[in-house]
């Protein structure tokens, strides 16, 4: 379901918007918010609810690993997009699950006309690192049909 207004979105966003995502703001086009939901005792799994304002998306990026690794997105409120390099963008809505293998260049974010949240978690693995790449251009993003 699309949420154009923040007040209505907040009622559906059960995991909470959290605080402005200042630490990663340089890797986003638009404003995003981060709510730390918790972690396993050993810290191998950390859960965050990431909220994107309408039109916000993160830059292309890669979750590197020599074994295991990758990222899982569980979409919880609103509508958004996921795209792996060389593939068509996939529309996301509440209940969508995206399993991103390690070493795949991709991006994700909100549709132009909807707030969007997903729970993000990194998959445990070996030799893990994140590489931030170029922004998703306004032209690329603008071609996506809402």
What does this structure look like?
It contains 2 helices and 14 strands; from the N terminus they run H-E-E-E-E-E-E-E-E-E-E-E-E-E-E-H. The protein is mainly β and 146 residues long. The strands form 4 sheets. Strands 1, 3, 4, 8, 9, 10, 11 and 12 form an 8-stranded antiparallel sheet that branches. Strands 2-5 form a two-stranded antiparallel ribbon. The chain has a two-stranded antiparallel sheet with strand order 6-14. The mean pLDDT is 96.
Characteristics of this structure?
Jelly Rolls; 2 helices; 46% strand
CATH names the topology as Jelly Rolls
Superfamily (CATH H level) name:
Jelly Rolls
Radius of gyration computed on alpha carbons: 14 Å
Q: In which range does the helix fraction lie?
A: under 10%
Protein name: Carboxymuconolactone decarboxylase
Pfam family, one: Cupin_2
InterPro entries: Cupin_2 (IPR013096), HNL-like_cupin (IPR047263), RmlC-like_jellyroll (IPR014710), RmlC_Cupin_sf (IPR011051)
Organism: Streptococcus troglodytae
């Amino acid at each position: 379901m699309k949420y154009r207004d923040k007040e209505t979105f907040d009622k559906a966003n059960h995991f909470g918007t959290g605080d402005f995502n200042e630490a990663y703001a340089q890797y986003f086009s638009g404003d995003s918010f981060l709510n730390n939901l918790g972690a396993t005792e050993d810290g191998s799994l950390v859960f965050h609810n990431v909220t994107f304002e309408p039109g916000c998306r993160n830059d292309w990026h890669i979750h590197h690993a020599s074994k295991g690794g990758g990222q899982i997105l569980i979409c919880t409120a609103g509508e958004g997009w996921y795209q792996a390099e060389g593939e068509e963008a996939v529309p996301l809505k509440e209940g969508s699950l995206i399993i991103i293998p390690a070493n795949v260049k991709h991006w994700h974010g909100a549709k132009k006309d909807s707030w969007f949240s997903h729970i993000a978690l990194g998959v445990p693995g070996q030799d893990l690192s994140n590489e931030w790449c170029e922004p998703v251009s306004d032209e690329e993003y603008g071609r996506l049909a809402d």
